[in-house]
Specification:
heterodimer; A: mainly alpha; globular; B: alpha+beta; Alpha-Beta Plaits; three-stranded mixed sheet; 11 strands; elongated; membrane (chain A); transmembrane helix (chain A); dimethyl sulfoxide reductase activity (chain A)
């Protein structure tokens, strides 16, 4: 699949923002000055909104984006839009009450946290629902999206909030997220199109005669299908990117957390860990798209 | 509404005969011609006369080579357009309701003025039946020439999809699959029509008729010319033959 920068950016940043909203809604401690609460909440909400805005950049008609809220009965994309807006509104009210009164309205916080979970889940289901991309069509996909949202959200929240030596939790969350991703990668390696019984033979129905090979494409140049779904250039540096994702997204943030936890350095250093993790996740998300095989490629000479 | 209808009154679709298709691309060309000038927005091309040609088409003709284990390879031309699936995944993923399946005849359509061009329906389709229009930025797909088949103006014989009307080898047939007596239903029954990628569980309406078995040569022995011993030469050729033998 073609790795669209807008969608990669959207899933990573909105994931981190929603992870933060989840933690703040659950009551993650933040120093009770109204200005600081505003700033921390702005980071959480801003990342989510920035991600949502970025996702509209890949639309052919962004001015009609509001129409995407109508088909929640059947469409995960529609559900995601609704969940994101409801979550942001709930979180906004929660923060306003918090700033105005200095105390946090717990029920509203819990609802915002639930909204954040649902939003990340609906985002992941947009990909996990597709039978045409067997590597994505898995229950592990929502787990990975949720794990990374929570991990990166925790890093940001811990850097900006106030807490007593919970770096251990951060390391655990990062380890769990990468553990899920490791399982996802292992499964993806075993669940390519051919493993799921799709081949040029089933695509053409000609397997009963013999082995099927594309002799001539329908067109000499590229088209939407080959650019979007038979995209393979992105796989060129797959190995390097996977290592980069693991190191920047997992090893470096965990090491920074360990140093902060053991040395008693200011937890603002966790911000460096957060930036490193988000950078690593951009590489991870690039591979999520670039390495995915789409069924249509079987009509274009892919085995 | 992008939920799928339980069942549709008619199930209009195509039968494509892979035995008689000659791969002339006339169906794709007539499809492009009809659908770029009728009904909705044009089917755009980018850099149509330049080096980097690209554009939206609703029908594409692939050519495959199929090699049996015990016989020479054969060529199969393979036209591919929307299969108007009963369980169309492209419909349910649509967030706006632009992509829909009509309860009256089962045709899968895109309402262009509702389409936001997110591309998710094209991701959901295993057949590559949908292409984003590079100029209009909305999703384009086969309409089964809905503006021809219900036309009151066109002559009776033209009230079929453009691809069917133009096919010079009658490899394309149009009709209602809900009617067991229709020409398409009978063709599918007689010739063993097949579904493409049944493992994707889309339940396509369009069916493909497999190529009829080829007649095989009686003997599979290599032709005599290759196996017969080379006749001995004499004179100059004999001397040359012997000299070359010595050289190894």
């Amino acid at each position: 699949m073609h790795p669209a920068v807008s969608v990669i950016f959207f899933t990573v940043t909105s994931g981190a923002g929603l992870g933060m909203i989840f933690l703040l809604g659950l009551g993650f401690p933040v120093e009770a000055s109204a200005a600081w609460v505003f700033f921390v909440s702005l980071v959480a909400g801003g990342l989510t909104v920035a991600g949502l805005l970025a996702s509209t950049f890949h639309l052919g008609h962004p001015e009609r984006a509001w129409r995407a809220l109508s088909q929640w009965r059947s469409s995960w994309l529609s559900r995601e839009g609704i969940a994101a807006i409801v979550t942001l509104v709930l979180f906004g009210i929660y923060v306003l009450i918090w700033m105005a009164t200095g105390s946090r309205y717990q029920l509203l916080g819990l609802l915002a946290a639930l909204g954040a979970v649902l939003t990340v889940f609906t985002t992941s289901m947009i990909y996990a629902q597709l039978k045409t991309v067997p590597q994505w069509h898995s229950r592990l996909t929502p787990l990975v999206y949720g794990g990374f949202a929570l991990g990166s959200g925790w890093l940001l929240a811990s850097a900006l909030g106030t807490h007593q030596a919970p770096e251990f939790w951060g390391v655990a969350l990062i380890a769990l997220a990468w553990g899920a991703k490791w399982l996802w990668w292992a499964r993806a390696g075993r669940n390519r199109l051919a493993d799921r019984g799709s081949s040029p033979e089933t695509a053409t129905g000609l397997g009963f005669i013999g082995k099927v090979r594309l002799l001539e494409r329908p067109h000499t140049g590229e088209n939407y299908l080959t650019k979007e779904m038979v995209h393979r250039i992105g796989r060129k540096h797959a190995r390097t990117l996977r290592i980069l994702a693991l190191v920047l997204g997992g090893v470096v943030p965990a090491a920074i957390l360990a140093i902060v936890g053991l040395s008693g350095a200011p937890s603002l250093l966790n911000l460096v860990a957060a930036v490193s993790m988000l950078t690593g996740l951009l590489a991870e998300r690039w591979l999520f798209f670039a390495e995915a095989e789409h069924a249509v490629s079987l009509y274009y000479g892919h085995r | 509404m992008t939920s799928l209808p339980e069942r549709t009154e008619k199930r209009l679709g195509l039968v494509i005969d892979l035995d008689t298709c000659v791969g002339c691309h006339a169906c794709a060309v007539n499809c492009k011609e009809w659908n770029t000038s009728a009904g909705a927005s044009p089917l755009s091309d980018v850099d149509a006369y330049g080096a980097d040609v690209s554009g939206a088409w609703l029908n594409r003709i692939h050519t495959f080579e199929v090699t049996p284990e015990d016989a020479p390879a054969q060529i199969v031309h393979f036209p591919k357009s929307c299969l108007h699936c009963d369980d169309a995944p492209c419909v349910t993923v649509c967030p706006t309701g632009a992509s829909h399946k009509r309860p009256e005849d089962g045709i899968v359509l895109v309402s262009e003025d509702l389409c936001i061009g997110c591309g998710l329906c094209a991701w959901a389709c295993p057949y590559g039946a949908r292409e984003m229009d590079p100029v209009e930025n909305v999703m384009k797909k086969c309409t089964l020439c809905v503006d021809r088949i219900y036309s009151k103006v066109l002559p009776e014989e033209d009230r079929v999809p453009a691809c069917v009307r133009t096919c010079p080898s009658s490899a394309r047939h149009f009709g209602d699959f809900n009617d067991p007596q229709s020409a398409v239903s009978r063709l599918v029954a007689e010739r063993g029509g097949i579904d493409l990628m049944p493992e994707m569980e889309t339940r396509p309406v369009n069916k493909y008729l497999p190529p009829r078995p080829k007649t095989r040569a009686q003997s599979s022995a290599t032709p005599a010319r290759d196996s017969a011993p080379t006749p001995k030469a004499d004179g100059f050729l004999g001397w040359l033959d012997a000299a070359l033998d010595k050289l190894g």
